[in-house]
Write a structure and sequence with these properties.
By secondary structure, the chain is of the alpha/beta class. It has a single domain (4-241), classed as Rossmann fold (3-Layer(aba) Sandwich). The protein is built from six helices and eleven strands. The protein has helices at residues 26-34, 79-92, 101-109, 192-202, 208-217, 224-241, and strands at 4-9, 41-46, 62-65, 96-99, 113-116, 122-130, 143-150, 152-156, 162-166, 174-177, 181-184. The strands form two sheets. It has a nine-stranded mixed β-sheet, with helices on both faces. Strands 5-8 form a two-stranded antiparallel ribbon. Helix 2 packs across helix 3. The longest helix is centred in the last third of the chain and has 18 residues, at 224-241. The two termini are 16 Å apart.
Length: 242
Amino acid sequence: MKRIKLGILQTNHDKSTEVGDAFPDDAHRFRDLFDQQDQRFQYRVYMTIGGEVPASLDEQDAFLITGSPLSVLDHHIFTDDLLAFIRRCDAAKKPLLGACFGHQAIAVALGGKVKKICGGYNVGIEETRFAVRRPWMCPQHDRLPMYVFHEDQVTQLPPGCDLLGSSDKCQIASFAKGDHIFTTQAHPEFSDRFMRCVLKFTQPHLPPENLSGIWDSLEQEQLGQVFGVWAANFFKGDASNA
C-alpha cells in the first residue's frame, strides 16, 4: 500500500510543565490518531509556530493544519505565510485539512469570518451533527461527539464552501470546499487523559459556573477516531487522484 506523504503544519508549541512536558505535541497526537488505521502515512512536520511553511505544494501529497491556543484574530510571526499557503493549496486544489485553529485559519484565508464566542470558551465533548455528506465521510455517522476547546469560531463561510456540520454552540463546526478542503472545529486527536489534564490546567481561567457541565460532558463516549478515518479517506482519495 502506497504511503501518503502528509505534511503537518504545527501551530502550537506547549512549553508548560503540566501539559507540554507530559504529553506528545500536536503533530504526534495526529500521528497517533492516523496510525490506528491500516493506511500508512509518511509524515513531515513543519514548525509553523516558528515561521516554517512548506516551500512547495509538491513536497507532500496532502497537508493538515493543527489546533493552537493562539487566536486566528491576532497577528503572529507565521500568519501572513500561513494564509498565503492556504490560498495556494486552494488554487491548486491540494488536499488540506484544518482542525480548530486550522479550521479557522482556512476560513479567514479564503474570505470567511471568525469572531470571539459570546460568553467565553466552548469546552468539553460536543456533538457535531452532519447534515451534508462527502464521499470520504465513511463509515457513515450523522453525529460525532468530539472534544472541543476554543474561544473563537467561524461565523461566516468563505465563498464557495459548503457547511457540513453544526453543533449546539458552534453553527459552522465543519465545512468543505470541493474535494480538496475539509475542516473541523473539534479536536479528534485529543485523548481523554490529555483533555482532562488540559482542563485541570486551564480551569482557573474558565467561568466557574460552567465547570460542572464541562467535566460532566467528558463522561460521554467520543468518536474522534471516526473523524480520523474520514480524514484518512479524504487524504487517500485526493492523493490518489493528484
